[in-house]
User: Fold this.
Amino acid sequence: MDKKDSLLKKAFDALENNLLPTESQKEIMLNRIMLECENENASCIEKLKQIVIVYPWRLAFAASAVQAVAFTLIFGTQYTNLFIGVFGG
Assistant:
């Protein structure tokens, strides 16, 4: 019975050691945490730059939404519908 118990103990110890992060994984986690801390202390302009870099489609969508609202306010809904009918398909 002692052989089986020691064999099981060794197996569980090996599994436990495999679940722990390696040194390189620890370094990667630390770098990510440091980057997040740096981003938290960034100014509003830096945060806006980061958002535009990571999600460029958000900037394009925002510009399109502002353009649509401005066009509707300036020309009214009748001309907006005509414009969409001609150029929108």
In short: Residues 24 and 30 are 10 Å apart (CA to CA). Residues 1-41 form one domain. The two ends are 80 Å apart (CA to CA). Residues 56-87 form the longest helix (32 residues).
